[in-house]
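Researcher: I've been going back and forth with a colleague about how Tetratricopeptide repeat protein might be arranged in three dimensions. Neither of us has a model we trust, so I'd like an independent prediction. The organism is Nocardioides conyzicola, in case that matters for your notes. Sequence below.
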Amino acid sequence: MTDPRGLWDFEDPARSEQAFRAAADMAEGADRLVLLTQVARALGLQERYDEGHAVLDDLATGDDEVAARVSLERGRLLRSSGDPEAARPHFDAAEEIAAAAGLDAVRVDAVHMQALVADPADRLAITERALELAVHSRDQAARDWDASLLTNIGMVHADAGDFGEALTSFEHALASRERAGDQDRVRVGRWMVAWALRNLGRTKDALTMQRELKAELDAAGRTDPHVDEELGLLTQ
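Model: Here is an independent structure prediction for Tetratricopeptide repeat protein. You can compare it with whatever you and your colleague have in mind.
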């Protein structure tokens, strides 16, 4: 089955939409339908929710992966458009289908989305369940979820004011990103660690990390407003 991850540019959903449409035009059968579920997702990221739902409406199939992804993307569209309650049963359905079919990566994604629409008191446990599924999977695409899930766990702790636990999660997420070797994601991970350090009052360590990030971005001719904002807070 087609793995759609390589076509995504989450910084440019319009470009991603066109990439998925072009790939779908070249594909057949269930592969084509999987790619079209990602067209729907890209439309949702552009806030074109009705168009996204219309794409999914045309994807009736007996294929388990397509069915799971249709439910998953339907839920994402509903959540993004402001209706998390309506989204929840679609995420539940996506997990159920994916679990029965042995589609670990889709299942982890569905459980991760369940956490985002859950009662705040339940988000940590649900995200930890997604992480447990990810780290014990034989599917590399499922295991690759670990850094994102650890970051989400860290944010749950941060939202509760526990920046010590948040820092631990962010450090584990950073280690995972470093193993994967995607330097843009590594920089995000370092920023998260520095952000937690500032909130713990460890401003010297945080400032050192943010200055290192700024120097790397300058050398690459790039900017990041989040880094600049943290530097402003740390040097005021």
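Researcher: What would you highlight for our discussion?
Model: I'd start with this: The chain is about 80% helix and 0% strand. After that, consider the following. Residues 167 and 196 are 6 Å apart (CA to CA).
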